[in-house]
Design brief:
With 399 residues, this protein is α/β, with parallel strands linked by helices. It folds into 2 domains: 218 residues, no CATH class; 169 residues, no CATH class. The protein has 8 helices and 25 strands. The strands form 3 sheets. Strands 3, 5, 7, 9, 11, 13, 15, 17, 19, 20, 22, 23 and 25 form a 13-stranded parallel β-sheet that branches. The protein has a 10-stranded parallel β-sheet with strand order 4-6-8-10-12-14-16-18-21-24, with no helix packed on it. Strand 1 and strand 2 form a beta hairpin. Helix 1 packs across helix 4 and helix 5 packs across helix 7. The two termini are 44 Å apart.
Length: 399
């Protein structure tokens, strides 16, 4: 259940990186704003101003008090939306506050999210602390993932959430599907459908709450693992690191420039690599499936599918190589141990990041996108010999 919810919330991240890539390769243009000129990339849209078309807001503090007649993208540290968005809203920030009217879907990812918005569509949110305030009114479904989730608003249809601590004090028009260690159904809350939840603890359902459907509890083993389970987990992680290092060594001796060449896009153009990775992750399986439905394209579709799986596996090693190259240059490890130790250290760091609760999903996705995008960019660009020589001088660490 929780994996399905996380996959839904992962759509947010894919949208973000896809648009970062598109905004990097497409030329920017100005928009008419109530007789003035608005340049995409600025951080403020004042009350009374209107933007026609898709627009990007970026900066440390983003304040949207006006009207956007189209899809709005906002990237920054603090994002506050009090105006009207007549289209989808995609936000990535540390602190997010959405109080305005959004006539489209909302995709938001950040550390702290507070939603008091009104929308007739779906909402996908992910973060450490997620709060749906009493003023929030969501016309369709709400999907939330985070450590702490508090819902005090109104969701007209289904509410799906995965986290550590979930509290419901608002209205849900259909089913509530929850996965958490601690679940509180507060007095005054109303669930018109079923309450389906997975937890190691029975939900705390207050006497003043209303659940019109059935309450179904699926027991889950407590989060605290036994010593044997922990040992097995660490053995699995160690095996993964060792196998990746062996693959790195084989390619290092067979094709000495392979890791250097395929890591360059991450070092030189990290955002472009993420965007290319998002496109490859989404488009490749679609193309493979389309080829498989044609008689002539079956062999190509099979080969493409195999290459896709191999590329996803190699993506982690590519990112580790880039990290190793960076450390080799920064700490002057260029001639030490043929690069084994920097890459091994990088693989350990990546393994730790992908095994931290509530961070593992996003960290794993970022690693796959960066590595996959680097493989794509490194193998589709044909550069002149002189340019190759210049680049090699800049980032070749001989490790």
């Amino acid at each position: 259940m929780s994996s399905k919810i996380l996959k839904r919330c992962g759509i947010t991240t894919l949208f973000l990186f896809l648009f970062v890539f598109m905004s990097a390769v497409l030329p920017s243009r100005s928009f008419s704003v109530s007789g003035a000129t608005f340049q995409p990339g600025s951080g403020t849209l004042q009350a009374g101003q209107t933007v026609d078309g898709t627009v990007v807001f970026s900066g440390d503090v983003i304040q949207i008090d006006g009207t956007v007649e189209g899809t709005a993208f906002a990237f920054g540290q603090d994002v506050r939306v009090n105006g009207t968005i007549n289209g989808d809203l995609v936000v990535a920030a540390q602190n997010i506050q959405i109080n305005g009217q959004v006539n489209g879907n909302i995709y938001a990812a950040g550390q702290y999210l507070n939603l008091g918005t009104k929308t007739n569509w779906d909402v996908f949110v992910g973060g450490q602390d997620v709060k749906i305030s009493k003023d929030a009114a969501i016309g369709r479904d709400l999907f939330a993932a985070g450590a702490t989730i508090v819902h005090d608003g109104k969701v007209q249809r289904r509410f799906s959430a995965s986290g550590s601590d979930i509290s419901i004090g608002g209205f849900i028009g259909q089913d509530a599907v929850l996965d958490a260690d601690k679940i509180n159904i507060l007095s005054g809350s109303s669930i018109k459908g079923n309450l389906d939840y997975t937890s190691s603890n029975k939900a705390n359902i207050a006497s003043g709450s209303v659940i019109e459907g059935n309450t179904n509890w699926e027991y889950r083993q407590p989060a605290e693992s036994t010593q044997n389970t922990i040992m097995n987990s660490w053995q699995s992680i160690a095996l993964s690191i060792v196998s990746a290092l062996i693959v790195w060594l084989i390619m290092r001796f067979w094709r000495p420039e392979f890791w250097n060449r395929n890591s360059k896009p991450i070092i030189e153009k990290p955002f472009k690599a993420l965007g290319a990775g998002a496109l490859a992750l989404i488009v490749t399986p679609i193309v493979a499936i389309l080829l498989l439905v044609t008689v002539v394209g079956v062999p190509v579709g099979i080969i493409l599918g195999i290459a896709y799986g191999v590329a996803i596996y190699l993506s982690k090693i590519v990112v580790a190589s880039a990290f190793g190259f960076w450390m080799a240059k920064k700490y002057k490890w260029a001639n030490m141990h043929k690069g084994v130790w920097p890459v091994l250290l990088a693989l350990i760091v990546l393994a730790v990041l992908t095994n931290i609760p509530y961070v593992d999903f996003l960290a794993g996705l970022l690693i796959v996108l960066a590595g996959l995008g680097a493989l794509v960019l490194a193998n589709i660009h044909s550069e002149k010999p002189k340019e190759n020589k210049d680049i090699q001088e800049n980032i070749s660490y001989e490790i």
